[in-house]
Request: fold
Amino acid sequence: MRRSKSFILHTAAITITFLSSVFCFGQGKVLEAQSIKSAILDKEIDYTIYLPAGYDESKRSYPVIYLLHGYGGDENVWVQYGLIDHFMDSAIENAEIPPSIVIMPDGGQHFYINDFQGYSKFEDMFFQEFIPMVEKNYRIKKTMEHRAVVGNSMGGYGAFLYGVKHHDMFGTCVPLSAAIISLDHPMTKNPMWKGIAKNLYGMDMDSQNPSTGHWDANNPLKLIQTIPKGQLKTRFYFDIGDDDFLYSGNAKAYVELRNMEVEHEFRIHDGGHDWTFWRSSIPGFLKFIGQGFMRQ
Reply:
């Protein structure tokens, strides 16, 4: 039986409306100036969150990406300079990643660790307070397969550390231009780095034999060697610019993961240690994260 043109157009409109409601095409929203009260740090911890289109209307739970900033940044830089909300909208619409929540905490300048004296226990706060709180306040899937941790520079170090040290928490880990620094790296001579080493790790870099106990305890390249072969199930995606001064530590991470036969991707693209490069990395790592979220 022949269908009228108006009937066909009406049916198409209903189909598009249905698909839009199912796949939540459109723009997500960014909420800034969010915070939780930390008893461990005795202060408010600020964060910014991206909620995918359709979040308010649905009752479903979503995968989550914890997105860590670099040194000197804050909870807003991935939106302001990375434009992460626009990239998420595009990746979701193109079915490269399912609708997901992105949470961007203010990591200060703590390198996402507990300092050697126990004065600033950022890592404890993150796992004991921050993640449980946001996963209670938002409809977030609470399985490792549906959690990813991503970061750039200092945040890349934090993401790699968490992906190794807390590998039971994250199904995917994405270190970008990660600050994986050996003690013979030229950067350790920099006055700023000497201050970081002393305040966070208890190392006097001007000493002949600096104390490295706390450094080693937070060195993902050392920690990864303590995990029995076959037990590290986290998927890793490294990306670094060919002109980045942190290339050597990232290359060592690649070798370790290769030797351990851990699932990973390692990318070297044209670029340096800046937002131009990190923005160019976003489509690739979102697709990689999406493959992990959707393969269940």
